[in-house]
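Review form for a predicted model. The reviewer records the input and the model, then writes brief findings.
Reviewer: anonymous (R2)
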Amino acid sequence: MILTSLAGLTLRPQTSRYRFRCEPMALPIEPPTFHLMPRAPLELERRIFEIAATQNGGDIPRFMRTAWRVREWTEPILYRILFFRLTPTVPFGPVIAPIEDRHWVPYIPFPTFLTLLSVKSTSFFERHVRHIFIDAGIEAYSLVLYIVILTACSHITDLYILHPPTPDYIPIICRLHSLRRLSIQAVPLFFPNQVNFGSTLFRNITHLHLLDLDGQLPQHLGEQLALAPCLTHVSFSVFFNVPALHTRVRTNTELQCIVFLDAGWPTVDLAAPLHIPDDRVVVIRHTNFFTEFFRGSRNGDDYWGLAEAFIHAKRQGEVDGSLYVISTRSNPWRGRSVGVRNE
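Model under review:
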């Protein structure tokens, strides 16, 4: 018997003549690859993207181009922390600006923000923005810009205003009912009258950073700060005479943490005691305010957490109780915050 196969044709003998008969080839069947590729549960996939977006905001624009569902998961994280530079003379920069190694934060020129407001839902920024840093000085029309920004982002918990405000800003900030952390120049905010820490502006504030020089603040500062019902942490940007300013604050027993941020006053030996009989006091040197704001907004690892960890270490006997001066650089208490931050 002669058997010859070629391309699925089998030649079989039949008496003295050959007849061709088509038979199917036994080819391997390969199912579509998408059925075989492993798929993570949707909840797990979402969590992976959210963690990656939180760890490195610079990758979020790339994540957003992956799929519509990934865009919905990661875009809110992109806008959780916003950085505004409102001075018109400053050139518009990239959409996201580098802060430190592998960490980015959205930098939004005001015209770009207006465009986003026109294409996003009215509740998008209200639901997702939690931290705002407003940099540089602004001209006379700044009040309008603040109204637009803070109205759209009305659920923020953290606000840093670098330039001097005016009393016109009080009603705008008072509408931020979720606000807990505020960095501001308080004296011009209440000019020409004395700062009123009993104002509704401070009713929910727990962490207050005062950018004023110590000589401009009220003489009986401790009693004044006690009017803010929720205030437990206060910090000052100072140039000199920390002991004198502390004397005016220490009478407030509700304060748990009193921080003096080095803003250029003469060099202090980090090992030298300041002889301030108050374990709530911490003097922190080498502070980059914007970087600290960003670190705190991202994971709570800011100068507040550093100060809390240092105070806790002193109370546990890990640190000499007479020491009060530390640095944000190469600090062993960095990342050991004993506080809890929800936003």
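Findings: Residues 42-55 form the longest helix (14 residues).
Further findings: Residues 42-77 form one domain.
Recommendation: see findings above.
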